[in-house]
Amino acid sequence: MATLEQVKFVTEQYNELQGLRWVIWGFVCIAIALEDVGVIPKAALLLAVLPLGMAGFIGVTAWYMRRYGTVVGAKRGYGPYAWSLLAIPALIGGMLIDKYLGTRPFVMPLIFALWFLMQVDMAGQRRMYYLWLSLAMIIVNHAVGVTAWPQGSVLLNRTFVTWMLAGAAMIAGGWFDHLLLARTLGGKVTEDVRTV
Amino acid sequence: MSEPFKQIAELDRLVHDSSRLAILTALAACASADFLYLSSLTGLSKGNLSSHLSKLEAGGLIVITKQFIGKKPNTLVSLTPEGRAATEKHWEELERLKQYATKWGKGE
Q: What distance in Å separates residue A182's CA from the closest CA in chain B?
């Protein structure tokens, strides 16, 4: 059985820890990056990747319910909800600002990094991997930006780099979340014993 | 009997059992959770979990609501106000005992 602190934490964060949903969105981000450099046609992104992503998200949510059950009204404050609602307009705003500033996205990677940082439970030192992922994202994004790539390299396309990094970080973070949840909830069923 | 031992003896045994404390701690962190979640969390078999839930329900600490989601039966469990208070009080007592034990270890 998990420790009582883990019990409390996982119950409070049950919805956030359903990480395979983020793994799916990570692949969608990578598809957006590939569309940006012309590897995937825009029509395929809109008509196949995004609907598949939505279907996958719904399917994975249903799988978590069937596999681990349901928690209603987890007590974790309104912060995650508020940030989830703000994330999409923040990203669109970031993209517009970056477009206005020029070819080098600056705001969007910061928004992604901030979103990852919001997932960290600093006090309990859980989900610290999001701290490392956000730092890695900023450092790699900067490193790719200051490197002199040959003409025509896709790495010169900063929007591509940002979406690829965000997608990779989402896949890694989501997978670690899933492992945390699976380790806590995947306890072996004990034999029936008389209870006192 | 010295104070820490008196406190240990006075702990509510209905709450203090490790499986029941895990169930109550989980329920204190949310509005309600279903049977499958509690079973996944505690690793208890259906029979064992049912037995613990019956004891907690008999003690007035939880409410069990049986419902159907589509055609599937679903058992939803939530804390009563008394259950929430008992869980919080129990955690406070455990915290106090921990402080006693720490002082005792230092020979104070």
A: 9
**Rounded Cα distance, B58 and B52, in Å:** 10
Tell me which residue has tokens 């990203």. A91
DSSP-derived 3-state class of residue A17? coil
Mean pLDDT of A77-85: 60
- Chain B CB contacts of A2 under 8 Å are 22, 41
**CA nearest A8: which of B85, B27, B42, B49?**
B27
Record the tokens describing residue A155, joined without a space.
């790495």
Helices (H), B1-80: 3-10, 13-16, 18-28, 35-42, 46-58
Q: B45 in contact with A at a CB cutoff of 8 Å? A: yes
ipTM of this complex: 0.81
Question: Which residues from chain B sit within 8 angstroms of residue A191, using beta carbons?
Answer: 45
Tokens 């596999």 correspond to A67
Between B100 and A122, the higher pLDDT residue: B100
> Residue A50's Cα: distance from chain center in Å?
16
